[in-house]
């Protein structure tokens, strides 16, 4: 019964945590018995079971419970198969979504060598706009996961494609993550390539795209500032924050050191 398999997946993370804490007693139980079940359920015929498996996998990755060898030899190959050009549409959408979510939890080498080539292919998927939409919405996270060199060499050309997509929702998603993409690039690429691209979004024919671009204007401009003098930095959750200067802190030592946070989301950006 699918409900039984779904319930089983929901119990996998707490069992894995227990086994990790009791590792001397159960040194290989998770890798021998539980991890193969999680991997198998990523391709289950039932949608709810697959969703539960995906959520369990993300929790295991967040808790650093999955060995690097299992990620590279078991998890990534399954996701690459599910996101292949000839894969079922529903499986492909789910696979690209899980690839984007897990990218920030993996090593840069694993993401760049195993997942980045497929992500670049999916950005140009002409069959499913939903796939391109997921890629556009998570573009900044992928840039942050692979770093400046891979971003400028492989991702920026794909970002240009998505910013010119015929579907306005794609262009809107690009505008919303523009700050995160810009932050990953060099000042020269930011000035010579991304600035003209941003102008095209802020002049878009669709008002929803223009609105999203205007909301991202301030955060995008902030990426041109010198972090050492402006105190601007990007937090792990993708928001832009400002560190109070030492002069301000020293002037009031009893004042809590709270950061001022700006966000680049489509609802809260300024």
TrEMBL record:
GO terms for cellular component: cytoplasm. Signal peptide: none annotated. It comes from the Eukaryota. HEAT repeats lie at residues 115-154. The keyword tRNA processing does not apply. Residues 247-270 are annotated as: Disordered. Residues 257-270 have a biased composition (Low complexity). Keywords: Repeat. GO terms for molecular function: protein phosphatase regulator activity. Residues 247-256 have a biased composition (Polar residues). The keyword Cytoplasm does not apply. InterPro entries: ARM-like, ARM-type_fold, HEAT, HEAT_type_2, PP2A_Regulatory_Subunit_A. This is PP4R1 phosphatase. It comes from Lophotis ruficrista.
């Amino acid at each position: 019964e699918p409900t039984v398999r779904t319930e089983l997946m929901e119990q996998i993370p707490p069992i894995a945590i227990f086994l990790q804490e009791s590792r001397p007693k159960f040194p290989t139980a998770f890798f021998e018995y539980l991890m193969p079940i999680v991997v198998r359920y990523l391709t289950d015929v039932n949608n709810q079971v697959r969703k539960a498996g995906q959520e369990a996998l993300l929790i295991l990755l967040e808790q650093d419970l999955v060995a690097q060898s299992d990620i590279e030899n078991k998890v990534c190959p399954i996701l690459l198969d599910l996101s292949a050009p000839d894969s079922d549409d529903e499986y492909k959408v789910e696979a690209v979504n899980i690839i984007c979510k897990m990218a920030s939890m993996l090593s840069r080498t694993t993401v760049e060598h195993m997942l980045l080539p497929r992500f670049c292919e999916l950005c140009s998927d002409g069959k499913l706009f939903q796939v391109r939409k997921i890629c556009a919405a998570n573009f900044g996270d992928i840039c942050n996961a692979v770093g400046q060199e891979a971003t400028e060499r492989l991702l920026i050309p794909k970002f240009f494609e998505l910013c010119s997509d015929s579907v306005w929702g794609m262009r809107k998603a690009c505008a919303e993550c523009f700050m995160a993409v810009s932050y990953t690039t060099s000042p020269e690429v930011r000035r010579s390539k991304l600035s003209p691209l941003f102008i095209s979004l802020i002049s878009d024919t669709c008002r929803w795209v223009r609105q999203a671009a205007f909301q991202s204007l301030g955060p995008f401009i902030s990426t041109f500032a010198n972090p050492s003098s402006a105190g601007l930095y990007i937090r792990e959750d993708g928001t832009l924050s400002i560190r109070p200067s030492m002069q301000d802190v020293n002037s009031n030592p009893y004042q809590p050191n709270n950061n001022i946070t700006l966000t680049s989301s489509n609802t809260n950006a300024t």
